[in-house]
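[step 3/7] fold_predict: job queued, chain A
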Amino acid sequence: MSVKILIDSGSDITIKQAEEMGIVSLPIEVNFSGDTYMDGDNIIAEEFYNKLAEAKELPKTTQINSYRFEEEFKKYTENGDEVIYLSLSSKISGTYNNARLTAEQFDGKVHVVDTMTATSGMRVLAEYALNLIQEGKTAKEIAEALEAKKDKVRVFAMIDTLKYLKMGGRISGAAAVIGNMMSIKPVIGVLDGEVKVVGKSVGAKKAFVLIEQLIKDHGDIDLSLPHCYVFSGTDLKNYNSFLNTASNFYGDNASEIKGYSLGATIGSHIGPGAVGVAYFAK
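[step 4/7] structure written:
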């Protein structure tokens, strides 16, 4: 009997990346003006941001329903294996609730964890779970460890453009125009299960300083646990600039740390040019 890790594409882990990691990523449906795609499967980051640039309204995502969960849980438990499903935060999507209710049909073989985070915050939890599998932990032990550790996960990122916050109705058109003229860069955090604006700066460099301060305020990065960079869009100018400052909080290993693109779930609300970090706080 083995333990299988399932996660949804709210983690921004594509189907291909999941295969390389040895886990399963369940795509969330993304609808662009009537055309439906499966996030991380038949639409990946580059294609998504190209479509987003042309969109007149934000795409809509559809939570994974109970029928899909029943099919996936059955597939991975019928040979005696146990499943741990890492769900996008229950404060962002109803996916967790659908998974939890469906898991009740599987006699304790399916463990559902509400990650209370999103995007690469879910990724670092999945990597942590894989480490625990390597240590020989049982599914129950891993699920308990994830529940105990998930409150330490932090995601902070700078938003480069206010266009998509305006399209989503989060700020007014006037605020977006003035903010863009003044080069206002909001900094968001995934905290307590929600995406929140945690600060604003004038210009990207000051936003990077703010992210550094937020990391210090939240207990610094535990380098013994999984961590990574996050970015959005296809233009890596902001990402490369951010890497030049990352040694301030990552030290000499800053250039060796991997970066991953934000996908549809969070990317549709913040647009291209975002950069940040996902990690466990000490």
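[step 5/7] annotate
Residues 171-178 have pLDDT under 50 and may be disordered.
The chain has twelve helices and 13 strands.
exit 0
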